[in-house]
Request: fold
Amino acid sequence: MSIDVEALFTKALGLGAPWRIEKVDLDTAKRRIDFHLVCDEKRLDCPACHAGEQGIHDRIEREWRHLDLFQFEAYLHAKVPRVHCLECGKSLLTEVPWARPGSKFTLLFEALALSLCKDLPVLQAAKLLRCVDKKVWRFINHYVPEARKLDDMSEVKDIGIDETSLHKGQSYITVVHDLKKKRLLFATEGKDHKTVVKFSDDLKAHGGNPEQIEHVCQDMSAAFAKGVGEALPNAEICYDRFHIAAMAGEAMQEVHRFEMKTNVKLIKEALGDDTKVLKNLRWGMLKDPSDWNQKQTTAMHKLQRTTLQSARAWSLKMDLRKVYNNALVSNDKQQAQAELKDWLSWAKRSRLEPFKKLAVTLQGKFDAVVRGMLDHRNNAYVEAMNGLLQQTKRAARGYRDARNFISIAYLRMSKLKHLPNNPLEMAAPLTMPTGAPGVLTHRCM
Ligand SMILES: [Zn+2]
Reply:
């Protein structure tokens, strides 16, 4: 039985008329396989005005990198017909069904690259693909905006707004999440009130309605609150646990740092004159008690038997946590209000400036804070999102400008439905696309 290799690969690559493989070259030394394609047609439709049966002016040699075949890098080559149209007068290259116009990679290669970047840092994905990482960024920056154009936000009602910094302490990005569908809706540079206005415009562009937003979970930023007031008229703000816990943690650290600076003698008298003890104390105060090691446990037990400011600060932080946990269990608004009031009054009487300040802030937003105490589902999500954002930053390492960061955040966190599928996870048999070449249904080869 003889096998027609060209016919076999024409079929395997999902090609059909007018395209077929004319020749296959295998170079085992260079570890590459080259497929040479021809177009049998003498007349083609005009790529611009679609007038049928136009003459071919000339043919231009092009090369595309394709998915590896076994251990070989695979390349497609074709002389692409340039159609000279008598209707519109233009001379344009016909579109090929396996690649986007202008791209030097097949659609399936790009789709695989995109899928890899959902889980791997871009640099690592590029290494696996043996391709320059700048090219991978180009795929991402092409497909993600295309997929977002078709993103549907008509059902969005509950959102979380947060900010993250790209580099330490500078260039901020505001992110907006859908709390129900647990996905990233929008990201933009900056952290002022205009970011919320921009989100509202983007929401409208995706079939959503700013007046339909009922619930906004956010940090204490006055800018976001202003933006919500301006752009989301029916939204009720709630301050999430994650950010308030972080504020209490910062207040505690401020007290401790101040005491270390001004009264370290007192601390050493109470805990012992050993730098290691102080280190165990610092970590013990930051960590959850269930994560303390033996030495941290000893240091923290000693601390609790003292009258140090650090001891009081730690108790205040832990007590606020208890207030939140109780609210989570009871889901009782009145109880939550009463317990928060008690805590605020203790914090105000604590003679610890950072906690007095925190109490005044929380008092001023009392109702929105209580709403956040009872809304534990959203709180957990905001915290989880923060972790995902950190991973996204690592994924963009080396290319962490705002545009790249936002694109990769959408790719990983938006659950976009209109991205090309991973070609290595075939759900359906390969067929030629039914739509125009270059659309986002990449089952063409
Ligand atoms: Zn034309």
The two ends are 26 Å apart (CA to CA).
